[in-house]
Amino acid sequence: MIKDESVEKVIDESQQGTPLALQHNVKNTRKLYIESYGCQMNFSDSEIVASILAKEGFNTTELLEEADLVLVNTCSIREKAEQTVRKRLEKFNAVKKVNPGMKVGVLGCMAERLKSKFLEEEKIVDMVVGPDAYKDLPNLIQEIDEGRNAVNVILSKDETYGDVAPVRLNSNGVTAFVSITRGCDNMCTFCVVPFTRGRERSRNPQSILEEVNDLWERGFREVTLLGQNVDSYLWYGGGLKKDFEKASEMQKATSVNFAKLLELVAQAQPKMRIRFSTSNPQDMTLDVIESMAKYDNICKYIHLPVQSGSNRILQAMNRLHTREEYFELIDNIRKIIPDCAISQDMITGFPTETEEDHQDTLSLMEYVKYDFGFMFAYSERPGTLAERKMDDDVPEETKKRRLREIIDLQQKHGLFRTQEHVGRVEEVLIEGPSKKSDAHWMGRNSQNTVVVFPKEQYQVGDFVNVKINECTSATLIGEAVGYSKNN
Ligand code: SAH
Ligand code: F3S
């Protein structure tokens, strides 16, 4: 290698006599510690934030104690999620005592919900930034650097961060999130999201494809397209979903809906696994299921939250479908994609929920026999329609008991579903070592079920055919029988 001494010399001379701090360029030495709570979208947003701040000279650190800036990306979905964040702030407070220069900012849904009240309630907080204001972070940080508190919680009609290349945080190098819509227009009466994340808007498909292509180039093998309500994705040149009616004929003719977007992504990277979350039953159309069936690389798994099996409760929740319509959707999924996994979110103890409503939920679960489930006791959220118009009248013990019953039933159904895989050979994408054993890999099949098997010669990121020998209610255990055709 030929050394260019003249360049080295110039660098040396330029640094002579310069104070050490400037030599390193102070800006470049700042450390960002970022922590995320709640939904996948928050984790994805933190990667956008890290990217915006990397341009400002912030490097991420995993050591809270050495951070110059601590950001916490918060969740408001249930009261418990907010309490968790408040507990974390106490910890940050303790660290700040030994590192007084440390600044603390809150991002995400709690920031949006509480706005500047946060600064009064939690003295440790220097900065409050809502989910649509992350591009303003450089200005806000300058404010706090100058000793003032800073707040930006303005919600946007068109911000999708489509032009920001996320910095992948805590990445396994194999799977990544790609956000495709922001906000939600559904106004489920229990849900705080429409208030904290604003109106629904979709991201330019071109920028989605560019991100997916770039991920493939960098070795990623699976993407999850993210949105509060992905089936409602609609690109017609920008703007809010609710303004689509006002678009020109040309814009309407060239618009891209979710089924089309799935096809575009599947075709752009035929070996990349594609997942998506979340589907709201009222917005999921047959063309989406048909797109899934058409492409091998679109994973056969739908997260399809229903929240309740009772028509009366569904209506009170402003979920715009009935139990019967949900069954019809399930039947269509099973007909078009026989091996499709389906998962649920459920809420027990929504206002006025009776024992009979609860039984309806159990019988709906019996009909579907979900592969997985995420179940919660109802938590009243300030500002939602349910909080304003309904009494949180189901006693806490009743909510908990019903929750236990649906969790137990889900566990039974989980086992029923995992048993269906035993004896089959399934393609698994290796994500990393098994948590329980260093001699085993952990990956997932197309249906999103975790599969564990001996490592042998295989590597992270490989697509491997695994013979499934045993199962628990959530995990498949098997042995590799060779690389899959995708490898
Ligand atoms: N966009 C998704 C859900 C977003 S919130 C959808 O279409 O359903 C994730 C889950 O949290 C919801 O599905 C719901 O089951 C639960 N959840 C939301 N608000 C809640 C509340 N106030 N109390 C308890 N659970 C809630
Ligand atoms: Fe919440 Fe319903 Fe939207 S659960 S995120 S308002 S689809």
From TrEMBL:
[4Fe-4S] cluster 2 binds at residues 184, 188, 191. Binds 2 [4Fe-4S] clusters. One cluster is coordinated with 3 cysteines and an exchangeable S-adenosyl-L-methionine. It is an enzyme of class 2 (transferase). Keywords: 4Fe-4S, Cytoplasm, Iron, Iron-sulfur, Metal-binding, S-adenosyl-L-methionine, Transferase, tRNA processing. Coiled coil: none annotated. Pfam families: Radical_SAM (PF04055), TRAM (PF01938), UPF0004 (PF00919). [4Fe-4S] cluster 1 binds at residues 39, 75, 109. GO terms for cellular component: cytosol. Its EC number is 2.8.4.3. It catalyses: N(6)-dimethylallyladenosine(37) in tRNA + (sulfur carrier)-SH + AH2 + 2 S-adenosyl-L-methionine = 2-methylsulfanyl-N(6)-dimethylallyladenosine(37) in tRNA + (sulfur carrier)-H + 5'-deoxyadenosine + L-methionine + A + S-adenosyl-L-homocysteine + 2 H(+). Residues 170-417 form the Radical SAM core domain. Its cofactor is [4Fe-4S] cluster. Residues 419-482 form the TRAM domain. Monomer. NCBIfam families: miaB-methiolase (TIGR01574), MiaB/RimO family radical SAM methylthiotransferase (TIGR00089). This is tRNA-2-methylthio-N(6)-dimethylallyladenosine synthase. The gene is miaB.
